[in-house]
# Entry
Amino acid sequence: MTLRRAAGRLLALMRKRRLDRELENDILAHLELAERDSVARGLSPEEARSAARRNFGGIEHMKEEHRDRRSFRWIETLLRDLRYGLASLVRAPGFTAVAVGVLALGIGANVAMFSLVDAVLLKPLPFPDPDRIVYVWEVPRPGVTNATSTLDFLDWKRLSAVFEALSAEHPIAGALSGDREPAHLSGKAVTADYFRVFATSAWLGRTFRPGEDQPGAAPVLVISHAAWQTHFGGDPNILNLRPVLDGEAHQIIGVLPPGAFDRDRAEFWKPLIFTPDQHTRGFHWLEVSGRLRGGVSLTQAREQMLAIDAALTEVTPLFKRDWTITVEPLDRLLVGDTLRRSLFIAFGAAALVLLIACANVANLLLAKGAARGKEMAVRAALGASRGRLAAQLLTESLVLCLLGGVAGVALASLMIQAATPFLLQSLPYTAGVSLDFRVLAFAAAVAMGVALLAGTLPSLQTSFGNLAQTLNGSSRGSSGAHSSVRRAIVAGEVALSLVLVCGALLLFKSLLNLQQLKTGIRIENVITMSVDLPLHTYASPQRAALFYDAIVERLRATRGVAQAALTTHLPLRWIGNGEGMQVAGVEKMVNVRFKRVDPAYFSTLGIPLLAGRGIADRDRDGAPRVAVINEALAARLADVAGMKTPVGRTVRLTTPSYRTKGGSLVEVQIVGIIRSERVGSPGAPDPPVAYVALAQAPNPQVKLIIRTEAEPAAVMPGVREAVREIDPGLPLGDIATMRQIRERTLSGASRPAWLIGVFAAVAVLLAAVGLYGVLSQAVTQQHREIGIRIALGARSRDVLAHVLRNALTMVAAGLVLGTLGAVALTRVMKSLLFEVSPLDPVALAVACVAMMLIGLLAAFLPANRAARVDPVTTLREEG
Amino acid sequence: MSKQHTEVPYGTLDLLVLKTLDAMGRMHGYALARRIEQVSGDCLQLSQGSVYPALIRLEQEGWIRTDWGISETNRKVKFFSLTKAGRKQLLVEVSNWEKATALVARFLEASS
# Structure
C-alpha cells in the first residue's frame, strides 16, 4: 500500500459520516439515471426500477466493500468496540468503580515503585559519560574501603595515566553570616579538578580553575542551585556578593545547575588547599574520585592503581604496607546492596499486588460475563462470530484497564509526592524521582498487560457460552461452569496475599527486634545539635576549650536542661575518624575509632563505667593526656597485645591537630573502660573506640548533647538564647532528638517493612473483595437451590454453614499454596531481616490465621444473605 | 440472453475505469458503468455498483479526481476525471496487461 493511500484511508476514517452520505447520494443518483434510461427504452416504471436494482448489484454488499476499500476496517471496528465498551461500563457504574479502583491500586503501586527503581537503578546517572566516574579507595582488608592520605592522593595524581581528572574531597561545614541570621551550611572542600570529574559546568558563573586550590589563592565558593535559592533568595547579582563564611569574605564564582547537586548534602564547595602539616601518609581523610580517560576499563584502572601502590611500598608506613587499592564505579558507591535489595523486594511485592488485582478484575469480568450470557447468546444467534464477540469483550476490558491505568498514575503521583520527603534521605542524590515519559510508558504497558492477563479468560469464557442452554435458561439450577475457574482464582489470590502478609510480618518482627536493640545509651529526653567554631575567631585550641567550658556552664543554668555535654561524634552514628594506637611490644598499630568527649558525656547519655574512671574536669590542656576505651577495644588489646588490665597503661595514639587535617603521635594513659555504646547501624559488631578528653584535643566541630527534664524541643529557645549570649554569630545546625537519630539509624531497615506492610494490607483487602465477590455471586446463582433446600427443611444455620464451608475450602487451598510460596520466596528476604529466621513459624501461623479470619469475614455477608432466603418468594419468582 | 457473459477478470476493473475516463473525459458513476458495459458489448457481467469501491480506491491513490456536477436527473452528483498521475498509471497498467496476456499467449502456443 502506498503511503498516500494509507493517509487517504486514515483521512477516510475521520470523514466516515460524510463519505457514507456521499456514497448514499451517488447510489440514489445512479438508480435514478438507470431507471430513466430504462423508461426511455420503453419499460414500465416498475420494471425499470427493478431492472436498475438488478443491474446495480447488492447495495449493502457494495457499501461494505466501499468501506473496506476506503479505510482501515479494523480501526473502525476497534473504535466501535471502544465506544461500546465505554457505554457498557457507564451502564454498570458499581462494577466499573470497583474494577477501576482495584486496578488503580495495583497499577498505581507498580508505577510508583517503577519510578523509584527507574530513578535509582535504571536511569543513567545525571552526568555526562557516568560510567567513567569512579572512586579510588584504599583497602585495609577485603570488603572494607578507606579514605586516603594527602601524600598518597598527590602521588596517585602524579603517577597515574588512566584518569582524565582525579580529585580529592572532604566534607566540611561552615557558618554563613553577614547581615542575616547566621546559618549552618554543609559543604565540601574539593581540589580544583572536582567538577571536571563529574563533567559539570556552572549554571551561572564558573567552577574552579586550576591553581585555585593552591596556597595563597583568593577564597572562592561554588554553591548549589538550591543553596542559591534558600540562602540568597535566588539573587541574580549573586556573583558580586561577598558573603561571609566562617568569618572570612568569600567570592561566589559559580552556581551549579539545578538537579542532582541539589539533592547532595553539600550546599557549597570550596577549594581544598593542603597545608604543609597535612603532607603526611598517616592521616586518612580524603575521598578520591576520578574520571577515567575514554576507552580505559575499570580493570585497567585497578591494575594501574595496584602497580602504583606497589611502587610506593618504600614510603608507605609500616601499618598499611599490606593494604591494597580498589577502583569502584560511582553507581556502586551510590546504590548500596541493601538499597538495591530493598527496592527489588518492594517492587516484587508491588507486582504481587498487581497480580492479585488482575485476579480480582478477571473475577469481576467473569461475574459480569455470567450475567451477560443471554446478551452474548443473542448476538451469536444474530450472526456475530465468536472471535468478534471475544474481541469486543477484550476491548471492553482494555477500556477498563486504561481507565484503571489513568487512575493508577494519578494515585502514583500522589504516593510519590507523599513519600518523597521520607525517601530523599535513603536514596542517592543522583536519583530524581518523577513521573516522566519513561514511567508513563511503563504505566501504559502495565495497563495493556493487565487487560490481556485479566481480560482473556473472561472474554473466552463469556463468548463461548452454550447458545441453546443459555437461551433456555437452564443454567438457573446450581452453580455454573465458570465457578470452578473463579474459585481457583480466589485461591490464587489468597495464596499471593499470604506470601505478602508473611513477608510483611517477618519485616515487622525484624523491626521490633531493632527497636528493642540495645543502644547502650539514654534515648528519651535527649536533644542534640552541632556547633562549628569559625577558625578566625577560635584560632587556637585554648580558645575553643574556653568556649566549651562557657557553653556547658551556661547551658546547665538554662531552664529545663538537666545535663549538657559535648562530643565530636553523635552517639549511634558511625565514627568516621579512625586513628592508630601504638602499644608497646606490638609492631602494627591497632586501628581504633577516635572520639573526643567532655567530662559530662558518659553520665549525660547514661553510659556505665566498667573499670577505672571516666574523663574528669582535671583532664585539661597541660595535664597528662588520658583516654577511656570501650569494651571492644579492651578485648582487642587483650587479643593483640595480651593486655589483660588496660587501665593505667600508657599507649601512643595518633591525634588530629586542631586547625588542620593532620596529626601527631601522642602519649596517653588509659584511665577507664566503659560499656560499648552502639556505633553505626545495627548488624555490625561494636568497633573498638578510644575516647579522648575534648579539652586536651579540641576540635572546631562539636555536637552539643542536652538531657532535658521534659519534652526536649521545648528547651530550644533557651538553648539558642544561651548560645547567642556566648557568641552571637554562632549558628546551631542539625538539631535532632536522640529519638530521631535512632529512627534515622534504623531507617534502612524500617522503610521496606512499612512499604511491604502497606502492600500486604492492600493485597489482603483485594483478596477479601475477591472472595466476597465470588461467594456473593454464588449465592445469587444458587438462590433457587437454597430456596428449595430451605423449603425441604434445611435450617438457616445449615445454609450459613454451607456457604462458609465453601469459603473455607477456597481459603484453605490458597493457604497451602501460599505457604509453599512463602517458603520459596522469603528466603530472598533473609538479608533484610534482623535476628528473624525467614521461615519463622510464628509469622507464618499468624499470617495463616489472619487470612482465615479475613476469609470468614468476607464470606459472612453472602452467607447471611443465603440464610435469609425466603423459599416462597424465590420459588414463585423463578417458577 | 444469447450472449455469453464473462466476469470481470481479477484486477482489471481499475484498468477499465482508467481507460474509460481517459477516453471519455469527466463523467459520473452511472455513465462510467454504462460505458464499460457498452464497450464490452454487454458481454461483461458487471454489477454496476462495483465501480464505486474501485473509484474511491483510485481517488485515494491520486489517479482520479472528483468534483461535483449536476446529473441528467438534476441531482448533485460526483463527477470523476483522470489526473496526470492517473494517465501515467494507465500506461503502466496497459503495459502490465500486455505483458501478462503475451505471457499467457506464449504458454498456450507452447503447449498446443
User: Anything to note?
Assistant: Chain A has 27 helices and 22 strands. Residues 147-322 of chain A form one domain. Chain A has four domains: 3-71, 147-322, 341-423+430-516+745-878, 538-726.
